[in-house]
Amino acid sequence: MSIEQWWPRLSPETRGWLIQHNGEPLPAEVVDEISDVGGEPSSEAWWVGEQRPDGLHLSDDAVDWVEAVANGEEPGPPNTA
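RE: above sequence
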């Protein structure tokens, strides 16, 4: 499931955390909530970035998507080209 589908299903607190900490590794509880509402993150999903020792990161396109939401914009489709 893509970010634009699971985003509205997240709790307001989790959406707020993602906006305030955009670009940071995702804590386990955030990954768990995303998994609960949108299914397990797949390495093939455009919004999934790298899995590093400090945790899962959003892709650059997903960071841009969250930033657009934070700025009150309606993000367009991901730039997956």
